[in-house]
Each structure stands twice: as structure tokens, then as C-alpha cells.
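Notes from the 1:1 (GR / supervisor)

We went over the backlog. Supervisor wanted to see one worked example end to end before approving the batch request, so GR pasted a single chain during the call. The sequence is below; no edits were made to it. Supervisor asked that the structure be written out right there so they could see what the output format looks like.
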Amino acid sequence: MIFSVLQDDEAISARALSKSYGKLMALRGFDLTVRHGEIFGFLGPDGAGKTTTIRCLLDLVRPSGGTVRILGVDPQTEHGVIRNHVGYLHSLLDRDEGFTARQLFKHFDVLRGGGMDWAFTLMLADRLELTLDKPINSLTKGNKQKVRLVHAFMYKPEVLLLDEPTQGLDPRMKEVVLNMVREVKEKNGAVLYASNQAREIQYIADRVGVLRAGEVMDVVLPNELAEGWYADVVLWDACDPAKITQIKGVRLVENEDNKCFRLHIVGELDDLFRVLATCRVQRFETERTALPGASNKRRSSCSF
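Structure output shown during the call:
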């Protein structure tokens, strides 16, 4: 750990994080924690707010509300922490495609003030089978992604912020990237791994935050992602939430006036149906957590 004076287990924290663009609420005031030695999967469909969250953590955009801390400091005032200890997929690549990858890495090193371990950078490029001396604008989409990945890893970061890191890569290269991510974790690094690919998140993450429409709906273990359901329940009359949450495998995610519930369920729905049969149910909707936002998402609804 680079900052040995930090006693807090949290490498990344956001509290009541919100971001609006005019009337559009991109982030709706959620909390987020990523610990040292952890890969935190950030799972949600395109447009859910994953990229906006990362940009707020990096101070590339300013949050509309809430607080952000990386390695215990505010990225709005401690830019050196971000520059020296955080790796991420750099969007500046899109403006520097006339460079070769070798030139780009050296250019970034000058901007950073030097200190790059060139032998380590060459090793990363070799692992990813990246050619360093072709103009970036002549590379395929997958090879451009490899350039971004080398840049994210080349300073041996303590914190990694990855947004769809395997996009455009073939299965063999995806496995290489996942191994690189695990190596950061093994050195007590913290990784925020954002993706819309549930199976990939299940494979790599220690915990998973499920993001939908700018809100973290739940934080689950990877096995719960495969086994679980979400249920939205709307009742005519108020109901004691304890009647529902005492059911094995049922966890209350949201509660509005004891009439509208958002539940996470691991296991079958039979016991829940038995309890709801004693209530006046206005609407009941379920969806599998394994593939939020995906085309094969299984969803059903019924009203009574």
C-alpha cells in the first residue's frame, strides 16, 4: 500500500453522489465503497451511469451533490493523488491518434513528470500483443483498446477505474486483461470494474453493485447475481415489511411508505407468494439479476 499512514479500509468512497445535466438526473444520490484488495463489479446497462460515476471519481466532471474520496483525499483538490496512484482508461487517446503507442506513452510520461518503468510498460504491451510503432489511427478497435489498457496499468496503480475494459477484445485477450486486474488486487489494490456483461462481472468481482437509471439498486455477491431475482411489489394497503423480509432469501432493497417495495430474492418465489396472498397486491414485477439490461432478460409482471 502506497499510503501506509491510511488506516481506513476504503480505497474509493462516494456518499450521496449525484449528477444532473439540466433536468436529466444521471446519478441519483447513491453511496459506493471499494476496499483495498477488492475488485468491485459495477454492473448496469448502457446509460445507467457507470461512465458518469467514474468521471466524477476522477474529477473530470463535477458532481452536483455528495462527496468523493480516493485514498482518503478529495480528488477535486488533490490532483496529484489521481495522477500518481490511479489508473484508468484514458479518453485522451481519441485526440492523439496521430501518435504511435510508444510516442503516446512517452508523451504521457512527460506530462506526468517522468518516472515510468519502461521495461514494465513493454512487458504489458507484450502480454497484450500490442504493436507499439504503428500510428494509433491505423489500429483496429481492439488494438486501440489495448493502448488504453497499457496506459491504465503502466504506473502500477493502487486504484484502477475500468470502464468496459474488455470491449473489442477477443476471448483470449479478455482472459489476459482479467488476469492483469487480479494481479492489482493481489497487491492490495482496489479495482472498480464497470461493465454491462454480467457473466464477466460474476467471473472477476468480489462484490457487485447493480446500477440502474443512476441508482445503485443493490450490492450482492457474484453467486447471488446468478441465483437472484429482483421484485418490484406495489400494494393497495400498507404492509409490515417484517412480514416480507423474514422470508428466507428475501432482502429489502427499497421501501416507500410500506406500500412499494424493491426486493432482492435468492431462491424460489413460492414463500414470497404465500405472504403476498394475504395482502392486496396492485402490481408485481420480477426480473433476473444475472443480465440486467440485456436482451435476454427474463421479466414478468402481473396485477391483482
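Supervisor's comment: The two ends are 56 Å apart (CA to CA).
Batch request approved.
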